[in-house]
């Protein structure tokens, strides 16, 4: 069995589980290549592999990611966070570099829930005086 390091990334409602392996295979997302999974997204490969680019490990390691929920951009951000956390699990000395690149902190913003008697989360029906 091959050894791997795992990291979990979340963004909005997207969740990803990223595993890093040593070698030079192609990275995959849900069993597909990055370009075929994120079809139509310009430079999705660069956005997803940003953790490897910052740490200069692009040709030494590859990853597999399982991602579900959320939209395309939220999934990309979830994979980036999962990759950053997996790199931290592999080598703790990379933390300053990853922190400076913004790959350690989870983005806490979530969609606010809709309230009753409101049209959206905060928008209320138009008030009529008469």
UniProtKB/TrEMBL annotation:
One of its GO terms (biological process) is translation. It comes from Candidatus Dojkabacteria bacterium. GO terms for cellular component: cytoplasm; small ribosomal subunit. One of its GO terms (molecular function) is structural constituent of ribosome. Keywords: Ribonucleoprotein, Ribosomal protein. This is 30S ribosomal protein S9. It comes from the Bacteria. PROSITE patterns: RIBOSOMAL_S9. The gene is rpsI. Belongs to the universal ribosomal protein uS9 family. It holds the Pfam family Ribosomal_S9. Coiled coil: none annotated.
